[in-house]
User: What shape does this take?
Amino acid sequence: MTDSSFIASRPGLEQALEAVLVPPSGSEQPQLPNNLPNKGIGEEATLKILAPIVIGGARHLGAPGAFAHMDPPTPWISWATTFWNAS
Assistant: This one.
C-alpha cells in the first residue's frame, strides 16, 4: 500500500509555492481546533490553514526588531534542502 502523503505531488508543491509567491495576509489568524481529528484534514487543507500563520505572520530579517544570531542560508538553498530532506 502506498500512502499518497509520502509522495511528492505537483499540485501540493504548487500550492505551497503560490503561498510564498503571493503571501497570504497574516492579519486574520484562523481559529485552530481545540482537538485534533483522529484521521487528519489532509495536506491541502493544512497548507491553507497554516500559510497565513507561517508566511503571512512571519517577521522578515530586514524588518525593524528582527534578530538573527547568524546569517541563515539563502531562501533558495533552504527550499531545496528542505524538499530534499522531505523526499
